[in-house]
């Protein structure tokens, strides 16, 4: 099927930028496959930011078209992947990280943020980074989420991570910190900040007029009246009282182990979780292939697949087996959000056309 991209509404919007992420990981090949399936999925023009070497290391015959500005995207898109090139200090070995590529990974992110802030890119979709590789090269942020806030000139904590799939949205209040640090770093302020960012995004980005938030406890059985932990009383409840005083429909703290079955999921529009795995395990269990990571609280739109670099798959020579679904879902959400359209289906709604079982290709 051939798609006349000039007649689509998306043509008028600035194109979405896709950062290459970890060059040795699955990201560049997923971006390449997104471009290769542009007609099948009727995708509007987009451009990559990264090193040509990274893309060709994974898909040797990929046509790549260097561009100097996102405005050249539409003209280049039909004949090759439009690419804003970024230099890299070393070669790319699929499946093997290298300290030489870290600076290029970060430069791609910096370029993407500048273009999103200037309005030349409608949104950013970030392919996964190998965080350990960047930490080794002096990257001071924990991940994209806080790094993007800093690049937007905002305190790191302004950015809030949400993961969304059909039927579930989760927000971890603490994110990339050791488990033993969670109770220390979990503050009423952090809960209030995450709740406000989530509430606002549900209204403005996800089209929910009166969002319902549910909050997980930190401890087993939400503390069992203090017998199994005190943070529910000392940290979570004070935050919830404040938020209710502000008129928010927010319930909890609930025992986290009973919040995510189907009936429970229907009772809220987003779940605020106290730590990374409490949020991401239910989401990725429910829909690893369709999950999208979306950053809230920033003046720019950023989404990402929910999965990581899949270095194991690449190292085993199985890059072609990587599922495109999450990248495709992240791209679609980025396009919708960048156009001010409502994104992501309502809880329980499977109407966006992708299936949890059939891979997108
Ligand atoms: N947005 C981002 O930049 C993210 C980055 N990461 C980073 O990725 C690195 C690896 O993290 P892991 O925890 O191992 O998670 P991972 O998601 O990379 O891999 C977990 C398992 O899922 C498989 N997998 C991942 N994506 C797949 C796909 N598209 N199709 C088929 N199979 C797939 C992998 O082969 C592996 O067996 C870490 O450095 C982590 O920090 C992880 C999540 C998000
Ligand atoms: N587990 C989520 C993840 O690692 C993504 O983090 P970020 O790079 O989006 O901050």
Report on this model:
By secondary structure, the protein is α/β, with parallel strands linked by helices. The chain has two domains: 205 residues, Isopropylmalate Dehydrogenase (3-Layer(aba) Sandwich), CATH 3.40.718.10; 120 residues, Isopropylmalate Dehydrogenase, CATH 3.40.718. 35% of the residues lie in helices and 16% in strands. It is built from 13 helices and twelve strands. The protein has a twelve-stranded mixed beta sheet with strand order 3-4-2-1-5-12-11-6-7-10-8-9, with helices on both faces. A hairpin with a 2-residue loop joins strand 6 and strand 7. Helix 8 crosses helix 9. The longest helix has 17 residues. The protein is globular. About 5% of the residues have low confidence. The ligand NCC(=O)COP(=O)(O)O binds next to helix 6.
Give the distinct bound molecules. 1,4-dihydronicotinamide adenine dinucleotide, ligand LD2JLWAY
Strand order of the largest sheet: 3-4-2-1-5-12-11-6-7-10-8-9
What is the H-and-E element order? Answer: EHEHEHEHEHHEEHHEHEHEHEEHH
- Integer average pLDDT: 92
**Count of discrete domains:** 2
CATH homologous superfamily caption of the largest domain? Isopropylmalate Dehydrogenase
Number of strands: 12
Described by strand count, sense and barrel closure, the largest sheet is: 12 strands, mixed
* Poorly predicted segments: 6-11, 345-356
CATH topology assignment of the largest domain: Isopropylmalate Dehydrogenase
Beta-strand percentage?
Answer: 15-25%
Main location: cytoplasm
Cofactor: Zn(2+); Mg(2+); Co(2+)
Biased composition (Polar residues): 1-11
EC number: 1.1.1.262
